């Protein structure tokens, strides 16, 4: 799925290459003053919201901070599947023209058990304790973490 980019907003420290790239593709380039976050409005609010979801999910699951990238990926997925009042639709619907499926929704970091195929060959445990980290990109599968 491909959506054309119509506008971008970056701090006023952009390079000439970026300006040429954007102009060549008909993209409006809005400059903001560096470190004046209020000028970025909803972008800053969105980043803050996603950060709060990710950090809270990681802490609630009691998982190591080294898994922060998975927590942020999960937070973005949750954000994109959440109804937003301005459009009365989810970002997923706006881009994909259909409602997101909630069939794969699981709590981040929830404990799960997977069958250990190796157990048939030796006397090891028949299942392994893993933790849910989210949905695999471009797949119907889930990501799990197996602690060492």
Automatic annotation (TrEMBL):
SUPFAM superfamilies, alphabetized: Ribonuclease H-like
Xref: InterPro entries: Integrase_cat-core, Retrotran_Ty1/copia-like, RNaseH-like_sf, RNaseH_sf
Domain Integrase catalytic: 1-99
Gene3D superfamilies assigned: Ribonuclease H-like superfamily/Ribonuclease H
GO biological process: DNA integration; DNA recombination; transposition
GO-annotated molecular function: DNA-directed DNA polymerase activity; endonuclease activity; hydrolase activity; metal ion binding; RNA binding; RNA-directed DNA polymerase activity
PROSITE patterns in UniProt: INTEGRASE
UniProt GO cellular component terms: nucleus
Keywords, comma-separated and alphabetical: DNA integration, DNA recombination, DNA-directed DNA polymerase, Endonuclease, Hydrolase, Magnesium, Metal-binding, Nuclease, Nucleotidyltransferase, RNA-binding, RNA-directed DNA polymerase, Transferase, Transposition
Reactions performed catalytically: DNA(n) + a 2'-deoxyribonucleoside 5'-triphosphate = DNA(n+1) + diphosphate
Name listed for the protein in its UniProt record: Integrase catalytic domain-containing protein
């Amino acid at each position: 799925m491909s959506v054309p980019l119509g506008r971008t907003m970056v701090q006023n420290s952009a390079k000439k290459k970026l300006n040429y790239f954007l102009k060549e593709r008909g993209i409006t380039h809005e400059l903001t003053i560096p470190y004046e976050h209020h000028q970025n409005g909803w972008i800053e609010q969105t980043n803050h919201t996603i950060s709060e979801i990710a950090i809270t999910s990681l802490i609630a699951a009691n998982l190591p901070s080294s898994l922060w990238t998975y927590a942020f990926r999960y937070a973005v997925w949750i954000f994109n599947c959440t109804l937003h009042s301005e459009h009365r639709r989810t970002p997923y619907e706006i881009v994909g023209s259909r409602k997101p499926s909630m069939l794969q929704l699981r709590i981040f970091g929830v404990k799960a058990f997977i069958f250990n195929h190796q157990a048939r060959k030796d006397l090891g445990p028949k299942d392994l304790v893993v933790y849910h980290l989210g949905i695999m990109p471009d797949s119907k599968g889930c990501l799990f973490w197996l602690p060492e």
